[in-house]
Every structure is written in structure tokens, then in C-alpha cells.
Amino acid sequence: MTDRLNIAIIAAAGSGTRMQADRAKQMIELGGKPLLLHTLKRFEKCDSVHEIVLVLQPDLTSEALAAISRHGLLKIKRVVAGGAERQDSIYRGLQVINANSAGIVVVHDAARPFVRPEEITTVIDRAESTGAALMALPAVDTIKQIKTARVQRTLDRSRIYHAQTPQAFRFSIIREAYERARVDGYSATDDSQLVERIGQRVSIVEGSPLNIKITRPFDLKIAELINTEYFNGAR
Ligand code: CTP
Ligand code: MG
Asked: Which of 31, 145, 148, 214 is the most buried (most CB within 10 A)?
């Protein structure tokens, strides 16, 4: 397997509705650099990732590519247009991957710029040994399952994890999961869910509270703090 390529699919084709900004969320600057570039640089620096497939919103392409070219990123081999939902975007990314050379596919949200290269490696290594792995964070709050604003039951918190990305899979596994979801018209909110439903076990790699998904305006304030306190104000 060592001669095979590990390929990252970076999902950056969302419209950032909840951010309510005047520009695409991916292009909002943090420390003078678009969020998307922060994310891409983590993958560029990760030796376990050999190639990047970037899934972009079509009307963002020229702006994003201009920013990318200024930062000398060498691993981006393909740029593809995303679809209506995240699942469609990842599916399109998978379509351009060569089955004969692909090893592990690692999927990541562009909106999570604070993943560390060594964390990406850990998730890839786990997928190499088990087939499928994701970063997930143990819940700190007690979780209630509700129905019409009433508590139905309290879940056992020690067994509750928040799914993050990166999520990594052997190529044959993620391809089958996505093809079967497409045939069945099944939609999910992360990649692992599609892999779980084909009966594949997915391993957990304990995530980091710094690996936030920048979703709402408040998250940008947290992002500024994380960038200065933990990433030396990376530019
Ligand atoms: N994404 C994508 N294609 C889509 C939708 C989302 O590639 N059709 C990407 C986003 O760019 C983001 C990641 O998936 O990096 C996680 O999605 P989310 O945080 O929900 O971002 P948006 O969909 O852009 O935001 P919103 O849901 O608020 O519109
Ligand atoms: Mg979304």
C-alpha cells in the first residue's frame, strides 16, 4: 500500500449562509489570509497527504486560485466544482480520483482551519490500519434527546462524541459508500455516516477543541483567538 497516494478532498463549495457575511465564508481573512488558505496549508505541510482535490464554488474559483497561487501550494492537483449539498461536493471530488493509484482518501471541511498536520497523519494512519477513521470530540455537556420540546431521554454522555473532520477511508470503502448512498437516495451530514451504513466499522481518533468549524459570526471571534494564542498569529 505504501506506493499508493493519499489524497485529501477539501470541501470548500458551501455558501456560508449562517455566517451572513458579505463574502464567501472560505475567503474571510484571518491574520491577513483567507480561511481556505489556512486550511490548505495544514494539508500542504502534512507529509502523509500526497495530493489535494479542492472542491470549490464555481463563482469563487478565480479569487481562490489567485490566493492559492500566491502561497506556492504544490499538492493541489485538481480543482472541481461543488454541488448543491456537501455530499454532492465530496462525490464530485471522488469522481476525479484514480482508483489505480489511490490509497487513503481524507475528507476535510475548508471551514476547519485549525487542524494540525500531525492530527491529519493520525487519522490517515488509523484508516490505513482499520479502513475508516474520524476525528471526534468527547461531549462535555449532557445530551438530551427530545420530541416536541420535551425530553424523551438522557443519553449516556460517556458514549457521545462530536464528529469533526478530517475523516479518512480506504478509497474503495468511501467510493462504495458514496455510490450506494447515491443509488438509495440517502443523504447524511458527514462522510462517516455513509460508510457506517454499508456495515464498515469506523474508528475514533480523539479530536481537539481547537478544530472548530467556523459556522457563525461568533466563531470568527473564537478563530481570531485560536489563531493568535495557539498558531502564533499565522499569516
Ligand atoms: N460544503 C461544500 N459544498 C456544499 C456545502 C458545503 O463543499 N454544497 C463545504 C463548506 O464549504 C464547508 C464544509 O462543507 O467547508 C462544511 O459545511 P458548512 O460549515 O455547513 O458550510 P456552508 O455550507 O458553507 O455553511 P452554511 O451551512 O451556513 O450555508
Ligand atoms: Mg452547510
From this structure: 214
Please compute Rg for the chain using Cα positions.
Answer: 18
What amino acid occupies position 233?
Answer: G
Distance between CA atoms of residues 158 and 162, nearest Å: 12
Output the CA torsion sign for 67, 79, 81, 85: negative
- How many angstroms does the Cα of residue 118 sit away from the middle of ligand 1? 24
Q: What is the pTM of this model?
A: 0.97
Cell numbers representing residue 215 in the block: 459556522
What's the pLDDT score for residue 61?
Answer: 87
- Summary mean pLDDT of the chain: 96
* 3-state DSSP assignment of residue 130: helix
Give the number of whichever ligand sits closest to the CA of residue 165: 1
Scored b (16 or more CB within 10 A) or e, 100-111 reads eebbbbbbbbbb
Atom number of ligand 1 nearest to Cα 14 = 24
Regarding the beta carbon of 13 and ligand 1, being less than 6 Å apart is answered yes
Please name the residue whose Cα sits nearest to atom 13 of ligand 1: 109
